[in-house]
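Deliverable D4.2, example record:
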Amino acid sequence: MLATIDGGADDDTLTGGSYADRLIGGKAMTL
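Output generated by the structure prediction step:
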């Protein structure tokens, strides 16, 4: 899937944040 704006992959283990955290931060690019 597409990478998030912060440069992490869709897999939240690479960004250190959960999917919900990315949604709250406005950084989730895809479902």
